[in-house]
């Protein structure tokens, strides 16, 4: 069952289209992340769902109730949708308890019970209830903002880049805490973020936007391993994209002969591998193997437990109509055992390469 349904949403600001025929279904109780570069329309879409903006055309429904269509416009305060902005937007003249309890109905005792329950839910010490927002850390402020949004028992929770102002370690722990909390409470959630790793780890469903359009939707791992086009592949992480000749489940390319994820496509194509699918070895026995290819490490980017290597392939002969035979690849290696710059290495592949379905923008190789 889908909790939220967006159907053919259009929105323009002046002559510029902000949203162009966006349709999206969000399953009940799930977590959906909307990602895209700046200006892609993701925040505008979130504001449409919240009721802060209205589309020029299209419809939005939540749990079977129409929020927006050609004849209906339910205002934001009647939608029962929680919203957590990037900066928390706490009321500076109210204490933690005052912020969380803002808008709660009932007598003082019932409000206090609900506030205590919410503080416990977001792992805030009850002794902090009388603190002012400026006395809180960034992570604590975001927890108060989340508790305030949960106070009204929303049908849908919207998170607008809520972790972006936090440092790296706190961002990861907050993301896990919020994801578990929302899953435990069964609240359907939409997260808007420009952080790809955040979206991949947080969401059950990932939606990628570009220039006001929804270009691909699906499970995070599916989009990471099987993006439609090169632009989406590179937006979701480092990728090795190269021309190849595909035939009978194999691709012939600069890496040699590689398994691909389809047997239905044949001919010139673009293939994609993630850097972690490339294995390197500097052992003499490996360097003499026929399978795979040989390259030279030209750069090392040490990152602690992992190291990203730039490897320049040593191609035996011109591969494509006189084009350059050199090609640089990104390869991930153990940070401890990464080979030094100048090392000759053998490169092999793990798993299957993905054949991009959108038209290639680079020249594809000819049939071998």
Task: Give the SSE map.
Layout: E1 2-13, E2 16-27, E3 31-35, H1 42-50, E4 57-62, E5 65-68, E6 81-84, H2 96-101, H3 108-121, H4 138-150, E7 156-160, H5 168-185, E8 188-193, H6 196-202, E9 205-210, E10 213-218, H7 220-225, H8 230-235, E11 240-247, E12 250-253, E13 256-259, E14 267-273, E15 278-281, H9 284-287, E16 293-302, E17 306-313, E18 327-334, E19 344-349, E20 354-355
Parallel strand pairs: 3-8, 3-9, 6-7, 7-8
Antiparallel strand pairs: 1-2, 1-4, 4-5, 9-10, 11-12, 11-14, 12-13, 14-20, 15-19, 16-17, 16-19, 17-18
Tally of helical runs: 9
Largest sheet: 6 strands, mixed
Counting structural domains, the number is 2
How many individual β-strands?
A: 20
The CATH topology label of the largest domain is Rossmann fold
CATH superfamily of the largest domain: P-loop containing nucleotide triphosphate hydrolases
Pattern of helices and strands: EEEHEEEHHHEHEHEEHHEEEEEHEEEEE
